[in-house]
Amino acid sequence: MTTAPRSAVVIGGGIVGLATAYDLSRHGISVTVVDEGHIDQRASSATAGIIGGSSVIPWANDQLWGRVPGMLLDRTKPLYLTWPLPKKLASFLRYSLQSGRPDTVKASAAGLANLGLKGRAYWADLLRDLPEAAELFDYEGCLLFYDSEAAKKGDAKDTALRRGFGMQIDDLTADEVRQILPPLEKPVFGASSVTTAGHVVDPVGLQNALCDGIKRNGGQFAKARAEALKLANGAVISVKAGTQEISGDVFVLAAGQGAADLGRELGIRIPMAPAWGVSVTFQDPGINLKVPLLVLNEGLAITPSRQGLRVSGLLQIGGEGKASTMQARLMTVARQIFGDFSYTGTQTFMGPRPLTADSLPFLGQDTSCTNLFHNFGHGHWGLTQASTSASVVRNLILGRPSEIDISAYRPDRFCNQ
Ligand SMILES: Cc1cc2nc3c(=O)[nH]c(=O)nc-3n(C[C@H](O)[C@H](O)[C@H](O)COP(=O)(O)OP(=O)(O)OC[C@H]3O[C@@H](n4cnc5c(N)ncnc54)[C@H](O)[C@@H]3O)c2cc1C
After folding, report:
1. In a domain, 21, yes or no
2. pTM, to two decimals
3. Which residue has a Cα nearest atom 26 of ligand 1?
């Protein structure tokens, strides 16, 4: 690009697309956000809302594969496989097996740390002029909760890895945990307290505040499905979205799991699968939880939120948004943890985490189309990473040097494997 771009089309209006669009809009670029769906159907709305809690641990590793069959057969485990299975699952699993090798896991962990551990600082910078969004962040830390010695031992290797990346983690005894938490039905063995972590008290409110900020900066929204990118001379000239052809100087593919189809059409190999997760918020539960709790062996997190007690997590491959099994499981586990508590209502969200084989997003400039930028595939930690990723894309678009090394996220990294 010889002249500075003046307009950008951002495909996808989840937290990653919105953070990117807002960042571009505050740097004088006229943005159009294209999104087909409703705010309730995004991973960004189902999120637990934790910033930087356990965010350096890749999901695939060599110890995982032996445990998967047992997890799938046991309905009390956090992993589900449901029909219809997603497209390209076999190829996703093949790349995931490769990515689970110790050397690749190490590289993935470094890539996650590079984006995630800067999330807090980049969110603060991004929301400098948007106080109504900044006030939705609370930095009181979070607890990795252990109900038994086995649970603590099982997490020891990951905690060492977290500390290796400089995460501030304190070991808490059972008594210390009991002083922080409300009374629990579940046995307490101890916890790791991640003191630099935080959480968003209203994830949907954060998306709405970013939308308001984008509109205030002159940005627009198109409610339509992006079906195809129109290319000419090695550049994207427009995106076909419903009945519209939306053009711009630059394009950002930030559609979470929905980016896979558009990206594959461009010839990029994208081993990514929708890892559905769910959150149930219990309104007025009478449980005074001050900091988020990650119950790793149950595959869920419990977060204090403006709307009530938010219990989120589990992982379902396939099933295209059918939440009932996971919703029921979350409600059961919440009672196992807190006892039989009462509440006035519940609110449920379900969304697909865009899970890549190596746990890292596709982030950077397209290798064929010079005015196309990728920003998707943030998996388990997209809320944490959205601000850092947005700044990467903004700097690339403005032709400024990147503040972080982005070689690990190359969009074409699977093309030669
Ligand atoms: C249960 C659960 C708990 C989680 N907890 C945490 C946590 O504690 N901390 C954390 O950091 N992360 C967490 N995550 C992960 C995080 O929520 C995701 O990584 C993040 O929301 C991904 O954001 P996104 O914008 O890429 O995707 P999404 O939020 O899914 O948004 C993608 C958007 O793109 C749109 N779209 C798709 N295809 C098209 C198309 N063709 N045309 C137009 N629009 C399209 C969709 O409508 C959607 O609105 C959690 C996720 C889940 C499910």
Report:
1. yes
2. 0.98
3. 256
